[in-house]
Amino acid sequence: MQLYRDDGIVLRTQKLGEADRIITILGRTSGRIRAVAKGVRRTKSRFGARLEPFTHVDLMLHTGRSLDIITQAEVIRPYGQPLAGDYPRYTAGVAMLETAERFTPVEKEPALRQLLLLIGGLRALGDAEHAPGLVLDAFLLRSLAVAGYAPALQECARCGAPESGMTGSGRRLPAFAVAAGGMVCASCRPPGAASPAAPTVALMLALLSGDWDMADRSERRHRVECSGLVAAYLQWHLEHSIRSLRHVERV
Description:
The protein has 6 helices and 9 strands. The protein is of the alpha+beta class.
């Protein structure tokens, strides 16, 4: 068996047999890994507590036939500790972990940018400088951008017409069409497209670009509308629902 080392964030765990767990990790060099941690459910386990979700760990692993085997684990940073007693931040964090796993569908395919986004998002949640919903939506939008699915917000997603300037009937890009890829002009607007408020679109832009001064000043109604659009857009491109999003408090 080949021995290798990597560090990453524990995304989730599941029971295996009577004493083992399967640990899913997003690794720095190896991408998403599924590995067995033997005996960690026993009370005398030396490193079971180090392999909990949200934990940034340094691992030693042996390659296996179907699943690799974790032989050593050291904690780099336990991002879950400051989230445990805060329901809004905890549920936002769970949604981040699930989303990161969905964006890395192929095992052992490097995904460094996704890992760095996840680490930054979990750190921001723990620091509590910004509302957890804003941190989550920023993470979701940037994950979409890394995957090549950034929504068009300043030009029509279909014809490329810019947002700059106004028409006689109002905003040049009056609608957000999930299937089209973002904002659309009146001519390209499909049936059923949403009509977000201009400050909502500005908030999405701020979250994508990291303009936290503007994001923190946003009104609750625009945050709620932004979250709905981001969730719909995310789940359209993933072609799979993010189950943990239903538990996130949108305040």
